């Protein structure tokens, strides 16, 4: 189990690193959005490429940020009952939800999106809008995002199982192996 926990911590480190990149992407998309607005309303200039770059960066934030949000327990959940449960009951819910929903959904999307992404890359798909950007560059990030989400789901599964087996304690940001 120590090997699995080491794997989980390596996955967590990857998600944290990507989360730091996402923070910079968020700043970049905010600056690009402001620049678009200034150009459009201040100078009556607009470009489909600028708008699509904004959409692409926004997509990257959500696709790549999913695993980071899961690692930080910052994802949206309906907390009517969950917050009132014991840590052990929450761990069971997280474990079952990960096995029954998160990992199968992530793998299903990977399976279904693969041909769509491969075709886009094969034909070097571009935007149908005048002055638009290539789409084949951004579409593979759908696969990357859901792969990272499945990987972080595996990490959470390992950590919850270790907690339920009494091998580690749950902490807010990190789980440590008990000596």
Q: Strands of the biggest beta sheet: in what spatial order? A: 1-2
Number of strands: 2
- Sketch the major β-sheet: 2 strands, antiparallel
Counted up, domains total 1
N-C termini distance: 13 Å
Q: Assign an overall shape.
A: elongated
Helices, by number, come to: 4
Membrane topology: Multi-pass membrane protein
InterPro entries: DctQ, TRAP_DctQ
Organism: Thermus oshimai JL-2
Protein name: TRAP-type mannitol/chloroaromatic compound transport system, small permease component
Please outline what is shown here.
This protein is mostly helical.
Note down, in words, how this protein is organized:
Residues 172-179 have low confidence and may be disordered. The protein is built from 4 helices and 2 strands; from the N terminus they run ααααββ. Helix content is 72%, strand content 2%. With 179 residues, the chain is an all-alpha fold. It has one domain. The chain has helices at 2-43, 48-71, 87-123, 140-164, and strands at residues 168-169, 176-177. The two termini are 13 Å apart. Strands 1-2 form a two-stranded antiparallel ribbon. Belongs to the TRAP transporter small permease family. It is a multi-pass membrane protein. It comes from Thermus oshimai JL-2. It holds the Pfam family DctQ.
Keywords:
single chain, 179 residues, mainly alpha, two-stranded antiparallel sheet, 2 strands, elongated, disordered C terminus, cell inner membrane, DctQ, transport
